Amino acid sequence: MAAAASSIDRSGALEITQRLTEICGPPFARFAGPADEVAGRAARWVAVPGAPAAAARVLRLAAAHGLTVVPRGAGTKIDWGAVPEQVDILLDTGRLAGIGHETVGAPTAEVGAGTPLRAVQATLERTGQRLAVDAPSPGATLGGVLAAGEAGPLRHRHGSPCDQLVGVRYLTADGELVDAGGGAPGLDLARLLCGSQGGLGVLVSATLRVQPVPASRLWISRPVWTPLEVNDLVRAILAARLDPAAVELDLTATRPHRPPRPDDPSAAARARHPSMAGRAHAPARAGSLVVLLEGGPADTVERAERLVALLDGHATVTHSPPTWWRRYPFAPGDTALRIEVPITDLHAAVYALRDAAGAPVPVRGSAGLGVVHAALPGSLPAERVASILAAVRGVLLARKGRCVVLAAPPQVRRAVDLWGELTTVPRLRAAKEHLDPHHRLAPGRLPGGL
Fold first, then answer.
1. Any idea what the Cα angle at residue 205 is, between residues 48 and 365, rounded to 5°?
2. DSSP state string for 395-416
3. Backbone region of residue 86 per phi and psi (left: phi > 0; alpha: psi in -120 to 50; beta: other values)
4. Using one digit for the tens of pLDDT, what is the confidence trace for 91-102?
5. Of 251, 329, 377, 425, whose CB neighbour count within 10 A is largest?
6. Residues 360-370: tens digit of each pLDDT
């Protein structure tokens, strides 16, 4: 495949550019520029088809010339995942956008893959509805959210966006348009496209459940001092059956110490907590645990009052989220991690990460599900990151958890296993052979080098 692409001379490249222009229209096909890359791998052409039929023709053209294709949405997570072996055509889904015409109050909505998520929500809110999808990436398209397997705080109550799918339209590597769900077979196979980074198919549209916009939303914030305390609090919150929409944790990277204030009524309780055994005094707060409650105004207030009482009165109630809500703890250039572990072992994962790094590490995410993100500085040497990953994965393995590297500097990518041990590789391999037997779609982006 790489040999076929590299053998295309200048006249052949111009011919492919002309064909792409005929398919997509003059403004929507071109040679790739410096910004057109995927996890550092430069593309050769960019095509922006205006309809599924045009996208199918792009894929058939690529197949005829042995070219690889990588789909791109808004590009907010283009650096996530493994570096593809080759990127010949970057298929931009920006024109595969729009929301299907549904009657007001319909239980589902069909959304084009290239539609920005915030545009979907703004449109639905005019009729008092929403998607229970709140991915953290600003400007992300729905297709990009699904392809990256991204989810935000609302996953606690409503599941991930992939869990909410009731139908999918996608293109195989050969340009065949497949309708799955909505009475058609194949939805289980189509769900594998979630998190596949475009390696199994090109998403065209997705049909998801919609729901009424909640009449009231309250955020209850409780400072926390140790990861073990977080474990106790989360267990108590879930046992109280308060039906939270989200239970989010934010742990900072600093750990300054201070003596307890004489007038602090909670100092004695913190000092007696088992996690403080052997410490001279309690550390300053390590972060916050925040619970989102949604529903009718009276019911939400009543549940908030019960939650504040459960948290010993050390909580505050607001009508807006904290500044870190729906934001990742990592920045461009950092090594971005996703940790998944049973909630009863989340504190063990955080302690393992801290001990391996030799200092507190910023951690943020859904404590109520045991799915959090963490950030290692981009300045850390690759061998140091590799040793931290090995230590954390060793702890998680015994707890049926996992740690995945979402993004990292180039030298770290080359030195570490991004995925760790995965039991899903055989199923992904079977899906790849079925949907893309010639490995033309984002080759190498999937685990196992698929």
1. 100
2. HHHTTT-EEEEEE--HHHHHHS
3. beta
4. 999 999 999 866
5. 251
6. 999 999 999 99
